TrEMBL record:
Name of the protein: Replicative DNA helicase (Mcm, cdc21)
Residues spanning the signal sequence: none
Entries under InterPro entries matching the protein: MCM (IPR031327), MCM_lid (IPR041562), P-loop_NTPase (IPR027417), WH-like_DNA-bd_sf (IPR036388)
GO-annotated cellular components: MCM complex
This protein's record includes keyword DNA-binding: no
Keywords assigned: ATP-binding, DNA replication, Helicase, Hydrolase, Nucleotide-binding
Keyword Transcription: no
Domain MCM AAA-lid, residue spans: 2-43
Length: 135
């Protein structure tokens, strides 16, 4: 079972209503709703799969799968902790070592790719070569 947003629920209602009208029914019946749910589930299996985990993740349709959101949260918590209150730059190797301990990242290469992604998204910046700070 997955949770859906109100917008997705409205879409299911529209699909069920459209099917009932197509079949010239005056009311939406249980089989119309079941068919709408079936179509929604098929769409999720085709378009809503997290490429990292291979599992259906509705967050994929909203832009960021849960696995990536979890990595982002861990990443930002770790770098803020390492920066401390005085916002001192964090060395790349120190950041990599701490993130590998978290078990959210498979290996050093994945951490490095994620660091580059965070720089591209302007979540962090390279204050000096090989050292990072949060924005």
């Amino acid at each position: 079972m997955i949770t859906i947003t109100p917008r997705q629920l409205e879409g299911l209602i529209r699909l069920a209503t459209a099917r009932a009208r197509l079949l010239l029914k005056n009311q939406v019946e249980k089989d119309d709703a079941e068919r709408a749910i079936y179509l929604f589930n098929e769409m999720l299996e085709n378009a809503g799969v997290d490429v990292n985990t291979g599992k259906v993740d509705i967050g994929t349709l909203q832009g960021r799968p849960r696995s990536e959101a979890s990595k982002l949260s861990t990443f930002m918590e770790t770098i803020r902790l390492l920066e401390g209150d005085n916002k001192s730059p964090v060395s790349e190797q120190e950041l990599i070592d701490e993130l590998e301990k978290s078990e959210k990242f498979k290996d050093e290469d994945e951490v490095r790719r994620f660091i580059r992604k965070m720089i591209n998204e302007a979540a962090i910046y390279e204050s000096t070569p090989g050292h990072y700070n949060t924005v």
